[in-house]
Design goal:
Elements (H helix, E strand, L loop, with lengths): L4 E5 H14 L4 E5 L1 H5 L3 H10 L4 E4 L2 H10 L4 E4 L8 H6 L3 E4 L2 H13 L4 E6 L14 H9 L4 E7 L12 H19 L6 E3 L3 H6 L7 E4 L10 H9 L10 E6 L2 E5 L4 E2 L5 E2 L4 E6 L16 E4 L2 E6 L7 E4 L11 E8 L2 E3 L1 H7 L4 H6 L7 E4 L1
Parallel strand pairs: 1-20, 2-3, 2-9, 3-4, 4-5, 5-6, 6-7, 7-8
Antiparallel strand pairs: 1-10, 10-18, 11-14, 12-13, 14-17, 15-16, 15-18, 16-17, 18-19
Helix pairs in contact: 3-4
The site of pyridoxal-5'-phosphate has 13 residues, from helix 9 and strand 9.
């Protein structure tokens, strides 16, 4: 009995893993569970994935990595984002693989690993055109020489990340990035390095560009049953590739109060919206602090008893109001669906994202991690 909660459909996660794995046969499957598993609950999703044999996980930071390590003592855990140097001892002690792209980080990591006579495993992130973290091609050789001087640092992976693979039907830029990545790999091999994990494919690349799969694929959004973009979905449909993704998350709350109000009544802060007719208004105990975006004020929709109901006035910090005039009966504490299916209707992350000009990734990742995650099997 929760007031507001997130439900995770275990079978949907398992089905999505199967689908993505079957499209990337031969490559190791790495489940990207950063940002609380895109809002789905990191521990919950990691446990489901581990039960169906997933052994690699990608996170953003060391804190996430350490939580996972406790849960999965022998899994491969790759930190994709930046780790502060002071955290290196903890990373090495826990067998966490780091993604590095600065030469001075190698020196520091070598000192830390040498002090405990251990070997630090790293992934070299190559800058191929996203201009995020990554080693510039012209600095790669210096970087490799530094690693040769560092006996306690071992390259277990080489990676890059595509800039626009989900945003365009044109693979030209991705191909350019991939050819730069291939050049970097050759450079490594010329210097005697043969990292087992060669990886650059996110969900869109897994779906659309098999040539990029390498030896490991990094599946994020698809694992959760959400298409990386509408364009990717359309392209897959056009190519007749059989691929079903099942959204795994439902976000629910309950009716806190219902009342009938006369025409003209202003609703919420700023009195930004007035009733155009006598209406029944329900108050929900959920607001922008829970991750329900304030830009959905007056335009968001939720499901009550299988009916679509509009958000009225501004979304507050911890509450919001909806119009339930069209729902035959609404009871106090009745379940309301903010995201997911109820009856014949669905509020998808894609729909919500489109309404407020963002991407579905943002809609799910910003659901407050403090809300309970309940796995439904
Ligand atoms: C988040 C992330 C991914 C996953 O991308 P999706 O589009 O969600 O599959 C893969 N690689 C890196 C480096 C990431 O940061």
């Amino acid at each position: 009995m929760e007031r507001t909660w997130v439900e995770i459909d275990e079978q949907a996660i398992i089905s999505n893993i199967k689908t993505l794995r079957s499209l990337s046969q031969g490559a190791r499957f790495c489940a990207i569970v950063k940002a609380n598993a895109y809002g789905h609950g990191m521990k919950e999703v990691a446990q489901i994935a581990a039960r169906v044999g997933v052994q690699s996980f990608g996170v953003d930071n060391l804190d996430e990595a350490l939580v996972l390590r406790e849960l999965l003592p022998s899994a491969q855990i790759i930190v994709l984002g930046y780790v502060m140097q002071y955290q290196y001892p903890e990373a090495v002690r826990n067998g966490i693989e780091l993604t590095l792209s600065d030469r001075e980080d190698i020196e520091q990591l070598e000192r830390v690993a040498a002090a405990t006579a251990s070997t630090a495993q790293i992934h070299l992130k190559i800058e191929t055109g996203t201009s995020r973290r990554g080693i510039l091609m012209e600095e790669l050789i210096d970087f490799l020489l530094e690693i040769k001087r560092s006996p306690h640092v071992s390259i277990c992976g080489i990676s890059t990340h595509f800039a626009s693979i989900e945003d365009t039907g044109n693979a030209e830029y991705a191909s350019l990035q991939f050819s730069r990545f291939s050049d970097a790999l050759k450079e490594l091999q010329n210097h005697g390095f043969n990292p087992p994990h060669i990886h650059c494919a996110c969900t869109a690349a897994i779906l659309l560009y098999p040539v990029t799969h390498g030896t490991l694929v990094r599946a994020g959004i698809g694992l959760y049953g959400i298409w990386p973009s509408e364009l990717v979905e359309q392209t897959i449909r056009k190519q007749n590739i059989s691929c079903e993704l099942r959204p795994a998350l439902k976000w629910k709350t309950r009716v806190a109060q219902v009342k009938s109000l006369p025409i003209g009544t202003p609703i919420g802060y700023g009195s930004t919206e007035r009733l155009k007719q006598r209406s029944r208004i329900a108050v929900l105990p959920v607001g922008y602090r829970d991750g329900y975006d304030r830009s959905l004020s007056s335009i968001g929709e939720v499901l009550v008893g299988g009916y679509r109901c509009k958000v009225m006035g501004r979304v507050c910090m911890n509450m919001m109001m909806i119009d339930v005039s069209s729902v035959p009966t609404v009871e106090k504490e009745q379940v309301v669906t903010l995201l997911g299916i109820d009856g014949r209707h669905e509020i998808s992350a894609v729909e919500v994202a489109r309404k407020i000009q963002t991407i579905p990734y943002e809609i799910v990742t910003r659901i407050n991690p403090l809300l309970p995650r309940i796995v439904v099997s």
